[in-house]
């Protein structure tokens, strides 16, 4: 018994040594960087890119450089709530006020609810929440969980395939190893036609994180219980919480987070007053 523990500990140390050597190798390959790129490229960040590319330094370097180029032009850290908030008035995507049992950020998504027709604005709204989730990670956590609920979903109100592809591409290529798991909760049978198309946009690693769950399926119920406390989980996901999305309160929270984001990145992007903000410092 003790020998087994010793070997396990030794294996962990060897894995850590290997990971550190790969991080150093990737740093050398990238070369000198500065500004926000330097702040972005922490050791933990480099590990995520390495893990996403099976520790292949050349592939990880290419992936990271693509992200740095994307961040320098798209500037996701400068997106502010006053630019995107109107797209979330109906609660189609928001950061939950609870964590999963592993302490991960939870994003709640309702694909049937749409507000703007602009694909650019809708993608920007998703990117804003990815950045916001990263800003609010608990100590020691790097990942988030997605909860998707399909009440009212149909092929007529579904996300356009082109937008779904852009969201999946952005998540996989510019936020590697940030997604822990995504639950597709009780999708209708017609969703199968949509899924047959979009599943090919996922790489193998990400596809394995997608879980279909159904309220009348025992295994699905047990899976949800293994990730969430009933008291926190909203009723529409099989839990006991009666929490409802409140756009006014959520907007206050996002404006405060915008200030945190600006402070973290040293951003000069304007943080506009919240139209719902009445001067309170918390919700």
UniProtKB/TrEMBL annotation:
What SUPFAM superfamilies does its record include? CRAL/TRIO domain, CRAL/TRIO N-terminal domain
Q: Where is the CRAL-TRIO domain?
A: 99-245
Signal peptide (residue range): none
One of the Pfam families matching this protein, by short name: CRAL_TRIO_N
Superkingdom of the source species: Eukaryota
SMART domains in UniProt: CRAL_TRIO_N, SEC14
Record-given protein name: CRAL-TRIO domain-containing protein
């Amino acid at each position: 018994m003790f020998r087994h523990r010793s070997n396990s500990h030794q294996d962990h140390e060897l894995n850590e040594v290997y990971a550190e050597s790969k991080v150093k190798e990737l740093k050398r390959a990238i070369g000198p960087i500065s500004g926000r790129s330097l702040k972005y490229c922490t050791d933990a960040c480099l590990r995520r890119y390495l893990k996403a590319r099976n520790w292949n330094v050349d592939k990880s370097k290419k992936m990271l450089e693509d992200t740095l180029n994307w961040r320098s032009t798209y500037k996701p850290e400068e997106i502010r709530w006053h630019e995107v908030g109107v797209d979330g008035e109906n609660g189609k995507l928001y950061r939950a006020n609870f964590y999963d049992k592993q302490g991960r950020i939870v994003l709640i998504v309702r694909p049937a609810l749409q507000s703007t027709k602009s694909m650019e604005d809708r993608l920007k709204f998703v990117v804003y929440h990815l950045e916001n989730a990263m800003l609010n990670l608990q100590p020691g956590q790097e990942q988030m969980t997605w909860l998707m609920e399909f009440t009212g979903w149909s092929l007529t109100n579904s996300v356009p395939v082109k937008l779904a592809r852009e969201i999946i591409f952005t998540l996989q290529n510019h936020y590697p190893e940030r997604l822990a798991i995504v639950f597709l909760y009780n999708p209708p049978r017609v969703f199968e036609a949509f899924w047959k198309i979009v599943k090919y946009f996922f790489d193998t690693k990400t596809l394995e994180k997608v879980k279909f769950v159904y309220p009348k399926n025992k295994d699905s119920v047990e899976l949800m219980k293994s990730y969430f406390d009933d008291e926190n989980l909203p009723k529409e996901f099989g839990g006991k919480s009666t929490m409802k999305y409140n756009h006014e309160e959520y907007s206050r929270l996002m404006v405060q987070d915008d200030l945190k984001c600006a402070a973290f990145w040293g951003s000069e992007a304007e943080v506009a007053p919240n139209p719902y903000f009445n001067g309170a410092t918390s919700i």
